[in-house]
Design goal:
Belongs to the SecG family. Keywords: Cell membrane, Membrane, Protein transport, Translocation, Transmembrane, Transmembrane helix, Transport. The chain has about 120 residues and is mostly helical. It has four helices and no strands. The chain has helices at about 1-20, 30-35, 45-70, 80-90. Helix 1 (about 1-20) runs antiparallel to helix 3. The chain is elongated and about 110 Å long.
Length: about 120
């Protein structure tokens, strides 16, 4: 199921990329090809179709992303192994080590060297 959803999402991504590349933000693109001819879909209808197609594909990618995220069996799973749970508890507990009270090292005061005459 997961693999099928991934394949569908990739196909929709490719289609969305193609639709976006067909469009021209300055009014050209595929819409300008129909300006002189009387096709079934006119200039305005082609622009509307491409815009609606873009929205539908973008929304379907978002929905499929959420569905894939929900359907994935992984992530944080509860372990049933008591030995493993004990190790996790031991590792997550902070160890409270207090510094040892040691006597400060006493450094002997430097004796002036005797003058040799």
């Amino acid at each position: 199921m997961y693999l099928v959803l991934i394949i569908i999402t990739i196909i929709i991504c490719v289609l969305l990329g193609l639709i976006v590349l067909i469009q021209n933000p300055k009014g050209g693109g595929l819409s300008s090809n129909f300006a002189g001819s009387s096709q079934l879909m006119g200039v305005q209808k082609t622009g509307d179709f491409l815009e609606k197609g873009t929205w539908v594909l973008a929304i379907s990618i978002m929905v499929l992303s959420l569905v894939i995220n929900v359907s994935v069996k992984g992530g944080a799973q509860k372990s049933e192994d008591p030995a493993l749970m004990e190790q996790i508890k031991k590792a997550s507990k902070p160890t409270s080590t207090t510094p040892q009270q040691t006597a400060p090292l006493s450094v002997p005061a430097a004796q002036p060297a005797p003058n040799k005459k």
